[in-house]
């Protein structure tokens, strides 16, 4: 089991949170000014969305490395459509660009493989169970 992620409110900020992950630099979360925050950091939806984009990029890179394909980099753009979120539909559109001397079949395979990343599968096929409790 991974060490816990710790989130702490920043006392001198409205909604800004500091996120501590063992072995990594601290991250910060805020909400847009339109919702009473300062807009000083990505909001929770941004982290949800970017986790998908980053996972897809990493998965494609790992596959290309294993196949020894000349993938030089990956660019990912994630667009969110949250209009129907309150009705239970949250849409993400992911556009990927694979850099390097790859043929069409390799690019198509990398796109296909990216759909198998753990976060994509988690978001589309898993039942997520959440338990919230007060901590002493």
UniProtKB/TrEMBL annotation:
InterPro entries: KH_dom-like_a/b, OsmC/Ohr_fam, OsmC/Ohrsf. It comes from the Bacteria. Signal peptide: none annotated. This is Putative redox protein.
């Amino acid at each position: 089991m991974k060490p816990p992620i710790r989130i702490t409110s920043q006392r001198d900020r409205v909604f800004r949170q500091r996120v501590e992950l063992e072995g990594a630099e601290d991250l910060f979360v805020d909400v847009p000014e339109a919702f009473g925050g300062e807009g000083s950091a990505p909001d929770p939806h941004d982290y949800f969305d970017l986790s998908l984009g980053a996972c897809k990029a990493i998965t494609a890179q790992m596959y290309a490395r294993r196949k020894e394909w000349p993938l030089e980099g990956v660019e990912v753009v994630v667009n969110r459509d949250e209009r129907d979120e309150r009705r239970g539909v949250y849409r993400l559109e992911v556009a990927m660009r694979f850099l390097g001397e790859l043929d069409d079949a390799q690019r198509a395979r990398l796109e296909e493989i990216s759909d198998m990343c753990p976060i994509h599968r988690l978001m589309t096929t898993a039942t997520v169970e959440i338990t919230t409790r007060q901590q002493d």
